[in-house]
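Posting this for the archive.
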Amino acid sequence: MSNEIYNLFVYGSLRSGFRNPMYQYLTKYFHLAGESVVKGKLYDLGDYPAAAATDDEKFISGELYCINNPLEFSWAIAQLDDYEGLNTEAGETPLYKREEVIAYQKGEPRTAWIYWYNGDLKGKPEIESGDLLQYLQQKNKP
């Protein structure tokens, strides 16, 4: 993994619209660069979303964040890795994996980190819009 990538693409609970307690941590070390998309598919796993890379022309909507201080990146991303379940006990499979991705912000490509789901998504409902916030608003309408 490259140590030169200081951007992070988020599509779920770390997006600003969720106001998850971990969002406060994220914004301590990263600043919001703006809305962005990555090529991929988004799924509804009930309690949380799952993203998977794809060759299809499908995109996931989210936000791009940039580190405030590159010297703090290793520490900050390690805490996010822990939140996303990358640090497991021996013999356990991590829930997500962090990989490089191209995020498009206003059509401009930017290299960023993303947390892809690390499990089987066969038979899971796809979020066709690729936008978790929009999907949840529609799903929760009375």
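Strands lie at 7-10, 30-39, 41-44, 49-52, 59-67, 96-105, 108-117. The CA atoms of residues 62 and 95 lie 20 Å apart.
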